[in-house]
Amino acid sequence: MSADDRAPGGAAGWLRGWRPAVSMASRNLRRNRVRTVLAVLGVCIGVLAVAALGIFGNVLALGADDAIGDIGTQVVVSPNTDAGVESLSDADIASIRRAVGEPAVIPLYSDSATVARQGDQTFATVYGVEEPALAYEAAEGRLPERHRQGAILGAGIAEDLGAGAGDTVEIAGSQVRVIAVLVESQTFSPVAPDDAVYLPESAFSADGYAQALVVSDTGAEARAAADAIREEVNAREDRVELFELAALVDEINEFFGLLSTFLLGLGAISLVVAGVSILNVMLMSTVERRQEIGVMRAVGVARRDVLRVLLAEAGLIGAAGAAAGTLLTVLLVAGLVLATPAVDTALVLDRTNAYYLLLALGFGVGVGLVSGAYPAWKAANERPVEALRS
Amino acid sequence: MSRNRTTDEAEDLAAGRATNGAAADWETSGDSNLADDDYAVALRGVVKRYPSGGGEPVVALDDVDFAARPGEFVAVVGPSGSGKSTLLNVLGLLDDPTSGRRLLGDTDVTSLSVAERTRARKESIGFVFQDFHLLPTLTAVENVAMPTAFDPGDASDRAANLLARFGLGDRLDHEPNELSGGQKQRVAIARSLINEPAVLLADEPTGNLDTDTGEAILAEFERVKAEGVAVIAVTHDPLVEEYADRVVDLTDGVLTGGLPGESDPHADADRRGGRDAGRTAPGPQMGGDRG
């Protein structure tokens, strides 16, 4: 045999060494099936805990995000009365538009009035708005491009009065036809559309706007818009006050992030327990097979290769447990979704959940390798002369 | 020689082959006096001391000179605890001498790194144990090929040929628990020969076998040595002594008759008369008819 023949062939040679190692390892694992199955079960439960709790936390966070989603996308701009600004002028609205760029800016007149229909009456905020379609959606009727006549009712007030599109309501003594009813609002905002009535701007005779809504697509865009308004509109004096919930949404998201981490941590504890059981199984198994390992070393199997066999055993336990745990998680989650109609299937099928499955799978294999490392190293490094001495 | 000289040196050193040209290249001039005899394996003034709990260290081997020629069958006898296993471990590169020199062919293998020793064992030394020590999860042919399992290439054909030579051609895929003691020991011998070693070391090879089976195993050793392998067996079994070309005695770490041709009072009697006497009337007294 020449030196060239013996030279290991780099990565290919490294991989080749694993094939006999995995083959020997799997046979060793079959020798004590009960013990192996129990160790696999430990990892399986650990992986199930990590994956299921991870997905559970994620679905909670996604669900919360879904429910409060719009909160963070609106910025309400009001005149700063402390600085003597009583209303927003056209110039103010123009500078807000310049500052925010993309998001729609909807200036609002505001007043309050009694709204009545067929004996029912209620006290409501009345807004004057020119382009309601930019900020709202109609559940009934149609929102006009330019609001010139008729009233738009919030969902709550329409229900209170039993009014729908086409009906007539009395607002501050005048009969006005209802052209649309808004969808129920998901938004928590000082401009609460559910209990409001929207009229054309021409119905108001005020000098300036009471508020302006900045409607963004995302929370990040809303935050950027708020920052831009602070920097540009309030550059010289604080002309406007801002109300934004993006920061609150951030905190809520942070809380759910923390909750997810906490749940993952809970799952991780069981995975650690599984790791300890692998450690135990591997230590027992290497002690029992001490002579065998000694013989392998004596007849010329290198320490590295003994290490490979034992690491492969631990890795196989980890991989089998992780695969079973992942499969079980998928079944469990599918079962829960089928049994609980309240859970939104779209949230469960969200791609981010797969990340938790992969994470748990990786953890399972990793736990196997880490727990197997010490027994394997110990056994591989024992002097064969000691191991053979019975 | 390649530019990677250090690696080559280590490999030559580990190969431990007298016939290896590279090994001769590696060898320093100071070793020439040790290479004058064509020994397969040799110990020169080897001392092995073990630390004992607090007191004086135990001397397991006391200035031992030993050598075996290729094709020679040497039996090492002596009372229990006399250091026979230590001698075998030192010869087999499983244990290092405290002082003295150890040669494999004409390569000095006194102090090798762990990896070098492992490689030298794989390539130059075969082991046969009293308890056979086959891996229970592997078939006969896999057990024979086990020393090379992690090497490139498939040694299954070679292993199958070896098993066939030892009459186990129909047992290739049997696991050890399906084999008799004698069959297991034959598998173990085949395993020891898979890399065509220069030396075969056997620790009580007949210890767990009945007389007939033991005799059959010793006959296999005769065939092995006929191929130029030096066979060294540690034993209590008089039968082994009968088959041996030379019997050396180890008592309290002191070896007598360790070198071939040394004037050992027992040697000639054992070699010429021992076998016939033993065959007809196996004597319980091991050394009774010597000298």
TrEMBL record, chain A:
Belongs to the ABC-4 integral membrane protein family. The keyword Magnesium does not apply. GO terms for molecular function: transmembrane transporter activity. GO terms for cellular component: plasma membrane. It comes from Halorubrum ezzemoulense DSM 17463. Residues 354-386 form the Rhodanese domain. Its main location: membrane. InterPro entries: ABC3_permease_C, MacB_PCD, Macrolide_Exporter_MacB, Rhodanese-like_dom. PANTHER family: ABC TRANSPORTER PERMEASE YTRF, MEMBRANE COMPONENT OF TRANSPORTER-RELATED. This is ABC transporter substrate-binding protein. The chain crosses the membrane at residues 36-56, 255-285, 306-334, 354-374. The keyword Membrane applies. Keywords: Cell membrane, Membrane, Transmembrane, Transmembrane helix. It is found in: Cell membrane.
TrEMBL record, chain B:
Residues 41-277 form the ABC transporter domain. Residues 263-278 have a biased composition (Basic and acidic residues). InterPro entries: AAA+_ATPase, ABC_transporter-like_ATP-bd, ABC_transporter-like_CS, ABC_transpr_LolD-like, MacB-like_ATP-bd, P-loop_NTPase. Pfam families: ABC_tran. Residues 15-24 have a biased composition (Low complexity). Residues 1-29, 255-291 are annotated as: Disordered. Keywords: ATP-binding, Nucleotide-binding, Transport. This is ABC transporter ATP-binding protein.
